Fold these 4 entries.
Entry 1:
Amino acid sequence: MTNKYIFDVDGTLTPSRERIDKEFAVWFSKFCQRNDVYLVTGSDRPKTIEQVGELIYCTCKRVYQCSGNDAWEKDVNIHTNNWTLPDLARTFLISCEYESDFSIRTGNHIEERPGMVNFSVVGRNATPEQRAAYVDFEAWNGERRKIADAFNTMFPDLEAKVGGETGIDISPKGFDKSQVIKDFDRKDNIYFFGDAMFDGGNDKPLADAIQACNYSGMLYPVTTWQDTFKILKEHQW
């Protein structure tokens, strides 16, 4: 039986949308050299390389971009899903942005990625300070879950999941992070680290799929990259 380590990126290996900590990067790159490591993230390839660096990216066995809809091994594209957002769903998201009580808008609110879109009321162009302001607003307002629930009711063939600090990941049903499980052997021990394994989070489908298939290993719900670093050092894999 082989140990396989799967990591979300934002909030799990890095601060959301930011670069990996330098000390952690050195340690984690050595971890990747010793172990079979896979990344699964809602972000696209350029953003993930910016966050973790080319050394870590190319040392991983495979990187699943865009919730598994765009898979890479080093610089080789394994497969890409070319689904696009229907016009009616786009109109719904635009109305959600317009109607939000949060006051800041920075642009790039509907970011199209291979096989999925990421929606953000504050916008992907937000500065760290603007993102932090939205995080504070959303902590008491719960806006993203409300939008995701309303979206899922209106568009039953699609699925919206809360991801990262400010976004909502949207894809056709079944084309979320759970789709990567098909690439793993039932004999594998799978250790999955993610910061959004809660109900409605974009790590939850993969966590559920791992449990449903009765894989050996462990799920590690984390809150920050520091949690991940601490767990990895304690186990000394």
Entry 2:
Amino acid sequence: MSHVRFATTQAVFDAFPEMVDKISVKPTDQSPIHFLRDLIANDKIADAVTFCAYLLPRREAVWWACGSVRTLLPDIPQARAGGLLAAEAWVSQSDDDHRRAALELGTNGDTKDPATWLALAAGWAGGLLVSNPKSQVPMPQYMTPRAVRIAIVTSSTGLPKDERITRLKACVQEGINLAEQ
């Protein structure tokens, strides 16, 4: 069963209008998977990471980001792994307790740490953005993919350029594989 929720690339952009400012390539009527493959073939790796983050459903996007961070930062010190572990726990058991635990870690974490963004990605995958007796605002759909993108991009910044591109291409390919399952 495919995890692709959109028939065309344009449909993804329509669902997430903020992508227009994050991707240098214009949307098309191509299938999202074909669009991703074209981005990789044309060395638009940052665009491919961004598009994949928005394409995948939230749970799958968090799972993909966790695997990508592990690929990009294979030696994560135990002291910095809390956000990653909380995100993985939420993916394994996507209940509100795990989501809130991840949100707590992410909210109190270092915004320069990719694991913090993984925790936020999981924490922002549901629940309420604002809750008071007069108004309850659900968590906006774009919050998780935004955090997924930041986690992956920040994980890659310390790598030499050629290695970064090679690893990011592998990460995007894993995202494609996950989307096609």
Entry 3:
Amino acid sequence: MKMTTGQHANYLPTLGDVPFSTGPIQFPKWWEKELIYRDGNFDLTRRRLIFALRHQDGGGHVGDLTDTAYVRLKTEAIWYSQVGENPPQPIYGAVAATMRQVAWEVTETLKAVGDDLVWL
């Protein structure tokens, strides 16, 4: 999240701008096990995010949004921002920023692999 001009807050992907590095991990762990969002009983992995977008939210097939973690991240204000004496304001847009982060991670991985990548 980034505060902009002291007025409101937006979700922005970190795109590698973090003070730590976890190093490379195996794809199945990154894709299916590593949580990108957790709130109580609501867990979301990269796989669940992509599949919800693809199957339920304007991808190849549009159906009812049934993934509770995705629906919660998309429709509810998970965090609020308060500036001065103003009332807290909900912050929306986490899905788009999260998807942009995942796309960046894939792009950076493919750059790092470079010529070692074998397409089957």
Entry 4:
Amino acid sequence: MPSDTPPPFKRHDPTAWTRTLAYRDRAVLPYDGAAYPIAATLMLDATVYIDAQRPGRLPAEIAARIATAPLLHSAVALAELAADLGMLDPGHPNTPVVRTAIEATLHRIAPERVVAPSAEAWAEGAVIAGTLARTQALARGDRRKLLNDALIFLTAWEANAVLISRNKNDIDLLLRFRPDVQVLLYDVG
């Protein structure tokens, strides 16, 4: 890291963020797929893997892009899916179907297409998530989820990939800190 570049934990001054951020209108958020070249490398948020399991849930434009574009997979998003395997209730009648779907998704992903956040992304993501946890008065469970979202978000930036997500609220907040991250949001069908 060049000496004139601040360390990741110093890129954002938490003391500059003192008010709760209002969520912005959908019209100002990145929902327009035409903003990115059709061949742009994509990274998928955990929401995409979940929505892809249900026919018709992903918008046709998003499904078509995922089917044809180069894909990278966030180690953090895959860890969220893998954690779901452990959290499933073995006694619930839907568990075998859900488990099979998650395992099939994880099995299909080539290890060389998995990207992990760097130490810098961890530090920057932690500062952003901590700041937002305070300003948004997030519950303890939501704080960890936001840290994961920040890590996925910053990993996409590090990989120069467009992050695909339906997580409008967290992405809206994260873009306040890093508007340079390429994101394509979608709504479920």
